[in-house]
Amino acid sequence: MKRNLILLGGLISFATLSSCNFVSTYNESFISLDTMINVNITCPKNGKEHISNIKAIYRDVDHYADNYQSYENKSVFDLNEKREIEITDTLKALINYSIDFKDKTNGYYNPLIGRLSTKWKDAVKRNTILSDEEINSELNIMNSSKVEINNNKAKIIGDANLDLGGIAKGYATEMVHQYLIKNEIKDYLINSGESNILVGTRDNKYSVGLSKPFNDDYYGKIVLNDKSIATSSPKYQKTEIDGILYHHIISPFTGKPVNNYASVNVICDNSMDADVYSTALFVMDIDVAKQFAGDKNIDIILCNKDEIIYKRMDIEIEKV
Asked: Are 257 and 225 in contact (CB under 8 A)?
């Protein structure tokens, strides 16, 4: 039996394909949503067509969820710039889901954090921090703004900016998931950029390694079948000033980066849920996170720098 170790990069670090005699396996990697997407599917026919359709799903979400450039005057960038635009069904769905998740997470995920999030990302790049005055001003703007959708138009009321970065990749991956189900493709591995993995059903299940964000070691590995797993971590966007770690995962309540965990993993049936909930959980303290996971009935793994500090799951975590 041949075992191929597929390195996915830092946060969820690898998936092991343990199988003999793969027939009609199709694999392609491409850039979308500012990250490398790898698609591996096994099906009896039309594999290239399925790969093309999957790429189109990611491309569609990438275009309209883009914070940094216009696309047909109907992207998030356009909405933030013009404050009211006509929107596509894709952007409408993303906005509506993001509003729903704000309620579902009790505000720990807030899509109107765009201005503050951008300022923190810029500050981290410059190795500086935001002042309390600037943070409080941005929080007031965020909390006094809202998004309204009427038919095919979206409007931001207030001065906040919309940021769908916390949901776009999960939404796209879940749309791919539904596409695979519709086309009766059961054996697949979708790696959506190091922090979001979707695996299908197979006799030899997928083994996913959970790497530590700040070194080359691992917390362990878990065996998955027909599940989504997402990770939030400050690994790639961070700076340390006076012994304090600053990064891009911001609390919508304090307006500051939160360092309760080194990484948060969420395992569930829906990639969008996993993506958003991992972000929301990262800014919750551990008691709130435990209660939240129980209420939502999702599996979570909370880690500090060196070890797993809490898990809610029946799946065994094995040594790598």
From this structure: no
d(CA 215, CA 245): 15
Contact 192, 198 (CB under 8 A): yes
Grouping H, G, I as helix, E, B as strand and the rest as coil, residue 176 is helix
Q: Which H/E stretch holds residue 222?
A: strand 218-224
> Residue 248: its pLDDT value, please?
86
Question: Which CATH class name applies to 64-157?
Answer: mainly alpha
> d(Cα 198, Cα 223) in Å, to the nearest integer?
13
Q: Domains of the chain: which residue ranges? A: 3-61+186-312, 64-157
CATH number at 3-61+186-312? 3.10.520.10
pLDDT tens digit string along 251-307?
999 999 999 999 999 999 999 999 999 999 999 999 999 999 999 999 999 999 889
Q: Would you tell me the crossing angle of helices 271-282 and 286-296 to the nearest 10 degrees?
A: 160
DSSP 1-35: --EEEEE--SSEEEEEEE-S---SEEEEEEEETTE
Q: Answer yes or no: same fold for 3-61+186-312 and 64-157.
A: no
Helices (H), the chain: 47-64, 76-82, 89-104, 114-125, 132-143, 168-182, 271-282, 286-296
- Whether the CA torsion 116, 121, 126, 130 is positive or negative: it is positive
pTM, 2 dp: 0.91
Instruction: Report pLDDT digits (tens) over 225-249.
Output: 999 999 998 887 788 888 888 888 9
